[in-house]
Model the fold of this input.
Amino acid sequence: MGVSGMIRLLLLLLIAGPALADEGRFTALAGNPGLHSASALVLDSAGNQIYGKDVDTVRPIASITKLMTAIVVLDAGLDLNEQITIDESDKDRIRMTGSRLRVGATLTRRDLLLLALMSSENRAAAALGRTYPGGTENFVARMNARAESLEMHSSRFADAAGLSAHNVSTANDLAKLLHAAHDYPLIAESTTTIDREVHPYSRGGPLTYINTNRLLKNENWHIALSKTGYINEAGRCLVMQANIDGEEISIVLLNSFGKLTPFGDSNRLRKWMLANS
Done:
């Protein structure tokens, strides 16, 4: 090989080397996992796409919204031990859903954050937004500003709980939200707590809440952060960060029909990844 040929080879190695070094174990897998979710995105810890389906389609995201709610609350440095009382304005006037947190229930901001993330408690999320400096309107403005700071350019937020169909995003944008949420240990802890007792009333016993992500009880899954969501317009949604056979993976599943479909899709993804790696 002449000098010019050697130079060309070295240049090719310099160009290809970093790309090969960054390529993850699960990239370029064969076949298709056969997911039922309308939008899906799976990334490794380096941001390499393992699988993608309609990743830029804007869709309602339901209670996935609560991840942004938690980020905005924690960014503000508000007192997590402050007692907050549920009032009439925290009731769901959009879908008229109920809640075990009746008007007059009192919990710390920390407990409300836990219930919003772990059990998707809507009144807890609404109270977090209402008690933010400047009230709910300012809180929603901060949610949208934070989305812009994360370059979630296709996302819009309309309320703290995710009850409005105007809370919208894409799979690509939600992967950015997941990445940001990973930097908040309290979010990771709250979203992976399996159950918790709280005492919101001075009279009466405790209330027990459970996590909406049933995969946390599955020994095959090692989940570091997660959030579920559902309204009619959004279908069933699930976002997670999980360790799959030693690899840190981000999963976004949007607009699944059937209560168990996101969990089934997650298991199909895991099986496909392990079978092809």
User: Anything to note?
Assistant: Confidence is low (pLDDT under 50) at residues 6-21. The helical segments are 3-22, 65-75, 109-118, 122-130, 135-149, 171-181, 185-191, 261-276. The longest helix spans residues 3-22. The longest strand covers residues 235-244.
